[in-house]
Design a protein that fits this description.
The structure is a homodimer. By secondary structure, chain A is mainly alpha-helical. The first copy, chain A, folds into two domains: 69 residues, Arc Repressor Mutant, subunit A, CATH 1.10.10.10; 142 residues, GntR ligand-binding domain-like (Four Helix Bundle (Hemerythrin (Met), subunit A)), CATH 1.20.120. Chain A has nine helices and three strands, in the order αααβββαααααα. The longest helix of chain A is centred in the middle third of the chain and has 25 residues. The radius of gyration of chain A is 22 Å and the shape is elongated. At the A-B interface, helix 1, helix 3, strand 3, helix 4 and helix 7 of A face helix 1, helix 3, strand 3, helix 4 and helix 7 of B. The structure holds a DNA duplex.
Chain lengths: 243, 243
DNA sequence: CTTGCGATGTTGTAGGATGACCGTATGATC
DNA sequence: GATCATACGGTCATCCTACAACATCGCAAG
């Protein structure tokens, strides 16, 4: 079959490209909430793809609650508040300010996570956290393994809160940050900073093991601040949070 | 065209039903991460739908990072940690314990949101918050309008933090809770409780207007606790959070 | 004026055809 | 016998056409 003339040449799949394009148009305000999208056929012509591809793209956006399609009428843009999913634009994180804000959110979640975990964690929770910590301090300080153990550590704490939503949200935010960092600079030895990083984790673990919520929370907050500065993000806007 | 024999009779669209079914199978552990899904044709036969429908369902799951399709090989289940989107199962919120956990997460986010907002909010931010408050206390205390103004109030505070991610996360969590409540019990007069609710909001606003972070945070925490108990959810596991 | 019905447009679903890509088996070459 | 090129079947990616389900509008009959 002859190849249609595509909009852009890329490795990404067509539905994803169409979805991204529509998503940006909606996010950017080109199409206001409540407005109707062009028909599937029109979109197919516009992007130079088949109607089938357009439908798959719309299926993705519809799953997020970004648009709503009604049979016989058309597809409509929905208000951004009633999304059924949270999605973070990886591109936006290249902006230092956005990364800073995401770190601030992470700080909030993780600080409280550590606080709750200190009060609730059982012995097996502590074992899991300790295991992750050992992996970090162990021989596999090389790039990937270390980062993986780092995430494992934080997830283990989140799990120790006993709150599945906290676990989900923290996992998500951390993963977004990790991938964004990993993408920005692939090589990151800096062994002296690794030592600092491990030391911060040890302090968190000690507070958790002592079941001291306040100490755990503060250790975690300092750690996130440190982690942020280590990747070049300064949480300048530090407020005198209720401490 | 003759109607195929569908799995279940429902008003939901076919792709969504297939996606939900697959999602539950993955979430439930029936298909472990890394495993390969049946081919599109097999799934089409299994669900009694066309391959087109299966592809739309997979498109949704793929957008969430739940599965990954590789041309020429098949579709594979991915680890739950590397999802690219957060989605909350509305069904699961019917379980009191899950609702309780979601409220706890909301408490964390909103408390810190109020704290930050108190330190950062500008006069126009306060105006927006005040406007929402007036709408709540105003004449439209009837069901929907009141709840809408309530959400508007909380969103205005989140916006005043200047952190877009905090706004997104809080909007999302609040919306999930609202829809779940709205679904559970459609009628909710209880006018005396409405007065209490408004009073709590006033206290939050006063703290924000006074730019008192600690007072704002505590007022918000008390409000969320109160809101939870008003819908029958007790945040029993209250910890001595770093006060 | 109201009501019913057809025309038209839109999304939803079915089904088949072809291209692109992957893994493996087969067979030729050294 | 070992190695490498090629053929083949399986699978996803995309395209196309056709029809069903639903909504809206206009027009004609009552």
């Amino acid at each position: 079959m002859k190849q249609r003339s595509s909009i852009i040449g890329s490795v990404e799949a067509l539905p994803h490209r169409v979805a991204s394009h529509l998503s940006r148009e909606i996010e950017g305000g080109d199409i206001i909430p409540g407005a109707r999208l062009p028909t599937e056929s029109q979109l197919a012509d516009k992007f130079g793809v088949s109607r089938n591809v357009v439908r798959e793209a719309i299926a993705q956006l519809r799953a997020d609650g970004m648009i709503e399609a009604r049979q016989g009428i058309g597809a409509f843009v929905m208000a951004p508040e009633q999304r059924t999913a949270i999605r973070i634009d990886r591109e936006a994180l290249k902006d230092q300010r956005n990364m800073e804000q995401l770190f601030e959110l992470r700080s909030i979640l993780e600080t409280e996570s550590a606080t709750l975990a200190a009060a609730r964690c059982a012995s097996d929770d502590l074992d899991a956290i300790k295991a992750a910590l050992d992996r970090m301090g162990g021989e596999e300080r090389w790039e990937d393994g270390s980062i993986e153990a780092d995430l494992l550590f934080h997830r283990a704490i989140a799990r120790a809160t006993g709150n599945g939503y906290i676990y989900t949200f923290i996992s998500f935010v951390c993963e977004q940050i990790r991938q964004s960092i990993h993408y920005a600079r692939l090589t990151n030895p800096l062994h002296d900073l690794v030592e600092v990083n491990v030391a911060e984790h040890v302090r968190i673990y000690d507070a958790l093991a002592a079941h001291d919520p306040q100490a755990a929370g503060e250790a975690m907050r300092r750690h996130i601040d440190g982690a942020a500065s280590r990747v070049g993000v300064e949480l300048t806007a530090k407020i005198n949070r209720g401490k």
